[in-house]
Amino acid sequence: MISFAGTRSGRAPLTWGQRAIWDAIRRTAPDDRYFNFGRVLEVPRGARPASVAYVSRGIGLLVERHEALRTLVGPGACQDLRDRGVLPVRIAAGADPDLVLAELSATAFDYADEWPLRVGLVTGGGPLHEDEVTHVVLVFCHMAADGLGAEQVVRDLRLFLLRGGLPGDPPPQPLDLARWQESVAGRRQAAAAATHWEREYRRIPATMFDLPSGAAERPPVRRAALSSPAIDLAAQRLAVRHGTSTSTVLLTAVSALVAEVTGHETVAVLPIVSNRFGRDTRTAVTTLSQEGLFVLGTGGSSGGPVRTRPGAGFADLLAAARAAVLRAYRSGYHDPGDRERIVAETSRERGVPIHPYCCFNDMRFTERATDHDDELIRRAPSETSLTWPLSQDELNCRFCVHVSDATRVSVTADTRWLSKADIERYLLGLERLLVEAALR
């Protein structure tokens, strides 16, 4: 057990990011373990040997420093910050850290009564090393942190292990962020974002995946993961050639293939935006990520299955996507209450529920871009492999693309709207589109 004692407690409304993930959690329950995620930190060589007591002390200081790690979901869905408590720890002697991570991630959090951080300490095993920690396993509730927030926790813990302390003032806390979002400046930001959502919701298709597949699986939600060096190499070349990011290249390609699959010439995708553009939020431990709204007119889509020979217009699409990406990023920092109102109003005006149900999440922390030679790109598809790592009953979306590292792209989809065979065709079609565009 790790005891902690912070400097304050209190209640406040959920932040915009917390409200967004809370809505997704409620729509996904009881399969909301889907949103758990974790990190494994190998104890740095310069910090060894690190005892269980020493590592536990560092984790306790982190929970005191970052208030999100001791914040529960209170009655009526609010932040319930506690100033003190005890955090359980799983001690695993000689265990595989990845197995401990899987074990700690396997069940949904109890948001009202369980601290939003689970901790596992892997020790060396045996009588001589049973108190020596080799790896720290951290599993986060998404209400407490997003990917970049979790990375800040890991950086802070590594720093403590090496230096024995955490210098500097704490970053902004969720309690304070929620109060800013209700201020005049916060409402000004919300209004600007709402204008984009309202304008685009009046012209996008009601939803992207609107035709039943007729081939639902049991359970219906499936994930296919493509390991593809070819996607990475091709995206890098296209980014260099067109002076943009690999993330924009991938989002544009994803949108082009959604148009091919669905027959909608105007594509609406909800990219996950980090919302860490301000200096005061870069190191904050909280969940700031929200969906933005990316809208791209592709033109010339004929529907039907994914084409194996994408048109030569990908460069034009990429040029059009630049401004659309910027608008999407700006719209990501929005008040979910405004968005709910806009959805209700436009759905009523148009006489049909409006929601894209089409998401894109680039989870990489860094990008690189090099103009690789033709032969390397041409040979790369021979190294492609596809697996099916997840199945479950509920998902808050119909189609989600995740980019987890440079060579790994996955699609999680509801097979009631996109069959398992079409999920596989989509991923392989994405690879073909990028390779052909890079070699064109």
Automatic annotation (TrEMBL):
Location of the Condensation domain: 54-333
InterPro entries, per the entry: CAT-like_dom_sf (IPR023213), Condensation_dom (IPR001242)
Coiled-coil residues: none
Top-level taxon of the source organism: Bacteria
Pfam families per record: Condensation
Range of residues in the leader sequence: none
Protein's name in the database: Condensation domain-containing protein
Record organism: Microtetraspora glauca
